[in-house]
Amino acid sequence: MPVVPADGSFSWVGPCETDTQLDCFESISALIGGAWVMAELTPRLSDPGSTLIDGQWVKNEPAPDWYGWFNREWRIPGLVNEDGSSTIATSGRIASPGTIDSRCSPLLPNEPCLPMLNISVTASTIDGFRMPWESGSKNCAWKSTNESSPYFGMCLREGHLQLGVKFRVTVRTSWILPTVVVSKTDETLVTVERLPQDGANRVTVEGTPYKTVGLGPGVDYKNDPNSRASWNDVIIKMQVLDGRYWRGGTYSKCAELPSLVVADNTWSPNSPTFSSSNGLELNVTNPHYDTDGTTPLEGRYNGIVPFLTASCLWGKDLNSKSQFIAEVIESSTGEKKAATTAVSVNAAELKISASGFTFSSPTIRVKSVTPSSTVSPKKITITCKKGKTIKKITSLKPKCAAGYKKV
Known about the structure:
By secondary structure, this protein is an all-beta fold. The chain folds into two domains: 10-369, no CATH class; 379-407, no CATH class. 2% of the residues lie in helices and 41% in strands. The protein has one helix spanning 307-314; strands spanning 10-12, 14-15, 24-32, 35-38, 40-41, 50-53, 56-59, 72-75, 87-95, 116-123, 131-132, 156-157, 167-173, 178-183, 185-194, 201-209, 212-214, 231-233, 236-242, 260-264, 273-275, 279-283, 299-306, 323-330, 340-345, 349-357, 362-369, 380-386, 389-395, 405-406. The strands form seven sheets. Strands 1, 5, 8, 9, 10, 14, 19, 20, 23, 25 and 26 form an eleven-stranded mixed beta sheet that branches. Strands 2, 3, 4, 13, 15 and 16 form a six-stranded mixed beta sheet that branches. A hairpin with a 6-residue loop joins strand 15 and strand 16 (201-209). The longest helix is centred in the last third of the chain and has 8 residues, at 307-314. It is elongated, with a radius of gyration of 28 Å. The N and C termini lie far apart (77 Å). The model has no long low-confidence stretch (mean pLDDT 91).
């Protein structure tokens, strides 16, 4: 049965150390050469850093809740990241309702955390691997201070995962009902298994990471028509949202139904909305141009809505004969944007795709539509006579044959 989490709790999510541990990464794997290759957990941790004391650098003693205990490194044999390594790093955090903690959002430290499980998988940086921002910007929070580094004084980003590789991430949760899963992956697939412990679930998300972008300070992507990305990313970002708290609990009646999945290639995490008039919507944001300042960024989106969940949201029984439309709307004007959209249905779910649209802040909208009813034209019967011969003619526009007269 679902359980109600304690208000105001925050925790980092690390690897599962036992078969019964919850709120942890159970496994990571990658599809390499047509086979799933399991990641091997390494013993390495991020350096907790040092403090200058009386002219000497003293290594910091990690606190019990230090993120380094939980942000762990894994190795996937055969994986080739941007730096040529086969190592990845996982990090995650989970926050219950009513939590206010700057670790949820350092930019909004006094705002309540969204109740969710937040997951990321990146190329490992334990050996200090970083790449400069493609935009060449020097306005950033993370700048190399190592004078011996070729990147000294430059803005840095994390290395990319191997492009085009599908990953599978499995986590265990103690209380989250995975009603909505938001990801930055293509061909996103989510499976959920209830575990023996009350409220516990095993959630598996797989997909191929989209190429996304990052923004440095001062990028005004909403108001600057010439805004451009600061760097590119090939990383995995996922959010698992509990339907009891999604959008303030408006759709809590649907919380225990199969997971709704939305995924896009934008820089920011986005939570979908739903309304009876506009249907399922996802507002996405990106700068207008890629890092070169000349190539427009093109949006990509994919989604899956099981019919049980769709029927709960739309408030009517939906099935494989139901009809839907997808469109991309310019949020600031309400006008339709040029895009390639499709909604396909099968016996279990509807699948949504949208691509080819531009930014800065469009909305992808999926609506259920009622098929237009058509009235069949009424056939008419006339009587035709030729001498003593009488015939009845029935058609849309009946006419008597030659030599016959209508009577």
